[in-house]
Amino acid sequence: MTTWNSAPYPPPDPYGGQQGYPPQQPYPGAGYPNAPPAYPAGGPGGYAQPGQPPYGQQPYGGQQPYGQPGGGGYTQPDMYGTTYPDDPDVKGFEFNDKSIRRGFIRKVYSILMGQLLITAGMIAYFLYDKNARVFVRNNSWLMFLALAVVFVAMIALACCGEVRRKAPMNFILLGLFTLAEGFMLAVISSQYKVDAVLMAVGITAVICLALTLFAFQTKWDFTMCGGFLFICVIVLLIFGLVASIMAATGNGNRVVNLVYASLGALLFSIYLIYDTQLMMGGKHKYSISPEEYIFAALNLYVDIINIFIYVLTIIGAAKD
């Protein structure tokens, strides 16, 4: 008789599995001690493990994949050709934006200085040339013509974006506006004495310089005050109409004129800060596009001219 071995068959599972069955193999590298290593490159299904090139070959002739030196995983290259966070091209983009803004500011102030020089020259000519003053008084239609040119040019530059951004039409309109406005301002200034006009010019220059420096340095954001300033302009306009009617009827008061001129100078001083910060952009909520250099120069020029007119009115009322 044949005697069978009493030992169980198959032998016990060395990994603690059930008797009589092969052990259940988990994924390599987990679940039991002394596990075999992870699948090598070109493992099951032909897929590579993370950090390994596909099919057991180095891509692109043995070069490391994109990413950090050493080939530690495939990293999608960004639009600048380098990886974050220390990307010199990203920092360069911020610098380029600042350089564009600085060039825009230089262009605006260059145009503004040209406008102010033309205006100052016309004022000086009418102050020191008596024949020019007599000619204007005998031809009052020139004032109405200049007023019409100012109105049409301002509407075209302020309301028609394509016009003010298209050269040379924008420079032509701005030049016509500056000549017409300078002519009107020269005629108005010729009604005052030379010392009063020179005093008004000096005070206006100091005010504008101080406000410009303040607008560049302050942390207050005035660009959010556009609606409030517009309401103040409407109120000031109504106040001016009432004061003009009172003066025409013989009920004018010097105190009313001083209050009106003081409020006007204060309002357009705030407007100068507002328009300067719009031009600066950067940390402010609202800003003007770098393409709008004509519009920015026009805004600053109108603010400075209005400050000068109101300061001259205050000086004239005080002297009278």
From TrEMBL:
Keywords from the UniProt entry: Membrane, Transmembrane, Transmembrane helix
Localization terms from the record: Membrane
Organism (species): Photinus pyralis
Gene Ontology CC entries for this record: membrane
Residue stretches of biased makeup (Low complexity): 49-67
Protein name: Protein lifeguard 1
Region of interest: Disordered: 1-81
Family: Belongs to the BI1 family.
This protein's record includes keyword Membrane: yes
Annotated transmembrane regions: 108-128, 140-159, 171-190, 196-216, 228-249, 255-274, 294-318
Membrane topology designation: Multi-pass membrane protein
Record-linked InterPro entries: Bax_inhibitor_1-related
A Pfam family assignment: Bax1-I
